[in-house]
Amino acid sequence: FFLSFFLSFLLSFFLCLSFFEGEILPPTIQRLMKGYNKYLRPFFDNGPVTVGMSMDIASIDTISEINMDYTATIFLRQRWTDERLVFEGNKSLSLDGRLVELLWVPDTFIVDSKKSFLHDITVENRLIRIFPNGTVLYALRITTTVACNMDLTKYPMDKQTCTLQLESWGYNINDVMFYWTRGNESVSGLDTLQLAQYTVEDHYTSVSEAVYETGNYPKLVFHFELKRSILYFILETYVPSSLLVVLSWVSFWISLSSVPARICIGVTTVLTMTTLMMGARTSLPNANCFIKAIDVYLGICFSFIFGALIEYAVAHFCTLTHMDSHMYSHHMHDFDDEMNGIITTISNHNRAKRRKEAAATPTPTPASLELTVSPSTPSGSEPKPESPPPKHTHWCLTALATVRKVLGSINCCHIENPHHIDNYSRVTFPLSFVMVNLLYWIYYLYF
What we know:
Heteropentamer, formed by a combination of alpha (GABRA1-6), beta (GABRB1-3), gamma (GABRG1-3), delta (GABRD), epsilon (GABRE), rho (GABRR1-3), pi (GABRP) and theta (GABRQ) chains, each subunit exhibiting distinct physiological and pharmacological properties. The protein is of the alpha+beta class and 447 residues long. Helices cover 44% and strands 24% of the residues.
């Protein structure tokens, strides 16, 4: 049983092999494939094989600032010469893409690729063409997502330079050499490419070597520079934020007594500006430490709006202080009159008291005066000195003078007309905003 099964398996295998070679492969290819070893590169003993490359950029689908990558669909074409595939004739042979499994092909890969796939609808999008001199053309249609390090400090007035790098995975520079077939013109398709937020300003190619621990490998790099279109952000962010700043200045023309109106304008513009700032950050990465240009502008607008709200608080407080100062001036006149009356009363009281004490003292006789003056009289008594004024009177006068100084210093801090604050704000706020805008746009556009 096992012997019959083995013989039937060998018979079916040889039948399939003869069918594969006789029906699928034409005679020319059969002669080329005879003795061909796809596991050995061309010129295995005669130096490296040179592989020329060119690309067509079919589309750049997405450019993500959050993930810092871009997704592109490319047509990658590779050319090399294999001396084992030389045949007679003057026409090239276009083969089915599935026959690539019979040939040696370069082990090219895309550096910094996060995710790639080969299109296979309706069949695998691969092309093999062999020329009489042994040149092989191998083309692929690939969609790949490639990392691109972005500098977002000038977002949305930024320019990003991304790269597409091609390297050999296993063959070093002693085995394989890469080159661009037509220099900078080896990459096409970018001139007619339409992107959502970017325009392609420049692109160029370069040839270098990748140095790893296992050796030096051939490397081709395609550089392209993207400039972001700022018109969308002007209409979406810059114009609304500027109009909110202008709206906050309306409160300068409203009376100081209209507290609800001015508070409503200030709080509404602050909340609206906060919502606008949160919406502008949703499409940007939150984990990085970039201070972007749009964040600076939104911060400037928020500062002006918040400053307009603080301006009304200051003006309203000065109005209340100004009203109190008028009342204080009237009270100060009354207070001065009362203090003058109190001081006059106290002084008159002290004088009357001294007169009464002087009248109550008996007038001494001449004899007694002589006795008093004479220091030799043993029975003479010393004269009584005049008593000083009471201490509580001096303390009261000192306290009243201190109170007057304190109230006088408070009275010096008031503003004569609080309405001048709004008049000054009507000029200083717009001029300051215009100056800050000029500095902002000059710096981020030209530096």
